[in-house]
Amino acid sequence: MEWDDDTLRRFREGTPEVLAEVYRAHAEPLARLLKAAAWRGTFTRLRNAMELENTLLETFARAFEPRTRTAYNGSRPYAHFLMGIARNVLLEQSREREVVGRDEPFEGLTESSGEDGGLAELLEDREVEALLAAFKDGLTREEHRLFELRFGEGVAQEEAATALGLTRIQVRRREFGLKSRLLGFLQSKGYLEDLETQGWSFFKRRGAR
Amino acid sequence: MSGCDDRQAKKAMAALFEKGTDEGLDAAGFERLRAHLATCPACQETYDRLSRVESVLEQRALPKARGALLEQALWARMAQAAGPAPRPVMRPARRWFTSPFLVPLSLGAAAAAVALVVVGPSLQRPDVTATQEWQARSASPGVGAWGVRAFCVATTGTVLAEARPGGTLACAEGNAVQFSYTAPERVHLSLEGLSKTGEPLRFFPSEGAAPEVAAGVDVPLPFSTPVQGGWLTDAVRVRASFTDAQGRSLADTQVTLTPAAR
């Protein structure tokens, strides 16, 4: 996002639209950087989705405090500013949990390093990708096309509807059906199986076994 | 596998995965889920695995639905932080609303539900003697075109009550107070109230000198103030001061806030 004088002024004033824009522009890149760091061995707890989300939330909450907003001068990249806050958040959390972790230099992380996940992450992703590929094999041609449009190519529901000759509502319903079946499929393949408990009836109802 | 019999949490996770925020999980449900996850390693693992699938599907580190729900959680957290903490007043007795109550109310409610009147460039400097719109919202019709209205907004964004300049707004704990102003020209604006103990409460700006605001009709202020923490247990008179760049008073209007039963 562009940081012109007006944007910086409104950011410092706490204008909600600007804060929302900043969050939306930086949440995903920051998540990528944190995740990449976690899989490289720094702050490994961030491999856990909830830990990652908690760290993101805490980082933005601090970044949007009035004093912190005022401290941002608009000249250095805001992503670097955020990373500094994230690093402090993580170090504080580590101290609170009495975890002595490897304190690798966060400042060394760049945008490109976000793409550089660890081998373990790669292997886990491959496991999921293989499962998804197997799931897609069982889809009809139309379902496969919808799956590809929405998840492979990431097109909006409206565009997918146009491409498939459906209404947006139809796309939404079919997408919901696909995801429900995917949940059942993941369970049937053991990806979620070991998590099944007595109260796990939601997945059982979809009974993909 | 150690069991977790919280079916609501499991349904919430599935709903988040299947439908995202589109009829899936709302902000309140997400908060309940997060609270459960914090104490349930089994569900945390499920959440983690579902998150991984979503990430691979969307090619994102932060799946869109979770990003959107986290954003709402962020605003809610900031709103909570904005509540004036009940603490002993130090001299000089001046308490500030240090942090704004953000998007869910101020954008959702103020920008949409509060019947915002969009002011086009042609109205930037209207003829106040000829424009009924300005007159109607003035604190002193026929005299000036300055005024502040107050709205009581529920967490859902619904406007529950409103008060015109000089009026009284009743707002219950748990809701939020949103102000809008009407000014015929660019002006510096501040809104301050007095609690029952005589303690100053600053609604706008949250800190610093009165900022310059643009001319407009019923322009919502960027922040709402949540009614929480006991600051609205008795009538609070909120004074809106419109001043020029030299600090000279152009107009003063007042709205009284009172607590309402839930």
Automatic annotation (TrEMBL), chain A:
Keyword Transcription annotated: yes
Question: Per the database record, which ranges form the RNA polymerase sigma-70 region domain?
Answer: 137-176
Q: Does the keyword Transcription regulation apply?
A: yes
Q: Which GO terms describe its molecular function?
A: DNA binding; sigma factor activity
**Assigned keywords, A-Z:** DNA-binding, Sigma factor, Transcription, Transcription regulation
- Record GO biological process: DNA-templated transcription initiation
Give the top-rank taxon of the lineage listed in the UniProt record for this protein: Bacteria
| Name by which UniProt lists this protein | Sigma-70 family RNA polymerase sigma factor
Q: Which organism is it from?
A: Corallococcus llansteffanensis
UniProtKB/TrEMBL annotation, chain B:
Keyword annotations from UniProtKB, A to Z:
Membrane, Transmembrane, Transmembrane helix
Segments spanning the bilayer are: 101-123
InterPro entries found in the cross-reference section:
Anti_sigma_zinc_sf
What is this protein's name?
Answer: Zinc-finger domain-containing protein
